[in-house]
Write a structure and sequence with these properties.
Helix content: 25-40%
GO molecular function, one term: nucleic acid binding
Strand content: 5-15%
Organism: Paramuricea clavata (Red gorgonian)
InterPro entries: Integrase_cat-core, Retrovirus_Pol_polyprotein, RNaseH-like_sf, RNaseH_sf
Structural class: alpha+beta
GO biological process, one term: DNA integration
Protein name: Transposon Tf2-9 poly
Largest sheet: 5 strands, antiparallel
Number of helices: 8
Radius of gyration: 32 Å
Shape: elongated
Number of domains: 2
Length: 259
């Protein structure tokens, strides 16, 4: 792919094991490519790829069930997909890439010269994305998050069974916020990257729970004052009332006779 289209400046991928290895990092560094990763546990952050995988997986599954060669069906699917006008841009992907009409299985009635349609595709994409964003926000009752850098939060965890809590009890501190993506760090130095909807704000944990070098805590005057200790070591006062044996059925029985 790089030999045909050139070396890109940025390569976006998910957080799968193949993209977290040392070989992958050295390869990108040798080519001068900057690696970017999508937000974990948030498929909407990589919506373009995730949406394309739906029809692709359906085509491969259909070919397997019908006993047809999946490689041949894959090439046929890609040809049809690239020569069909996209529902968002209104322009076939092949025309945007090669600036010419790619012949498919459907006959071309009127052959015309293709002009640069990138501006048309960008305008259509912007209009459609705004419409889809408003629809999704209204359907999900989306609200603007007020989490800021320095807030203490809990991180949503994966459900293992019915008794698993929605959020992990370990507190984190927000150290960076970029759009809807946030980075939070725990007191032991563990950093997580999640969408803002995966965090829940909490009050500042107690000093004995958060006194660690991993956080930069704000000291106040009350915390700097020495604690007052009880120098006399007086034992706690106990009740001095007289204990009487229980009165059962109108008769008093000694407690040592009652089992």
């Amino acid at each position: 792919m790089f030999s045909v289209h050139g070396i890109p400046d940025t390569l976006i991928s998910d957080n799968g094991p193949p993209f977290n290895g040392d070989d992958y990092a050295r390869y990108l560094k040798a080519l001068g490519i900057q690696a970017k990763f999508s937000t974990p546990y948030w498929p909407q952050g990589n919506a373009t790829v995730e949406r394309f995988m739906r029809p692709l997986g359906k085509a491969l599954k259909t070919a397997t069930l019908e006993g047809r060669p999946w490689k041949q069906e894959l090439n046929r699917f890609l040809l049809q997909y690239r020569t069909t006008p996209h529902c968002t841009t209104g322009v076939p992907p092949s025309e945007l890439l090669f600036n010419r009409v790619i012949k498919g299985k459907l006959a071309v009635i009127n052959s015309k010269k293709i002009v640069n349609r990138h501006k048309e595709a960008r305008d259509n994409e912007k209009t459609r994305q705004e419409r889809n964003r408003e629809y999704a926000n209204q359907r999900r009752n989306t609200r603007k998050s007020d989490l800021q850098v320095g807030d203490y939060v809990l991180v949503r965890q994966e459900k293992k069974n019915k008794l698993t809590a929605n959020f992990n009890h370990k507190p984190y501190k927000v150290i960076k916020k970029t759009g809807s993506e946030m980075l939070a760090q725990s007191k032991d130095g563990h950093i997580v990257k999640r969408n803002v909807s995966h965090f829940k704000r909490i009050n500042k944990p107690r000093e004995e729970d958060t006194d660690d070098e991993g956080f930069d805590y704000e000291e106040n005057s009350q915390n700097n004052q020495p604690s007052i200790s009880n120098e006399n070591n007086v034992a706690p006062r106990r009740s001095s009332r007289i204990r009487r044996p229980p009165n059962r059925y109108g008769h008093e029985y000694p407690s040592n006779l009652i089992n």
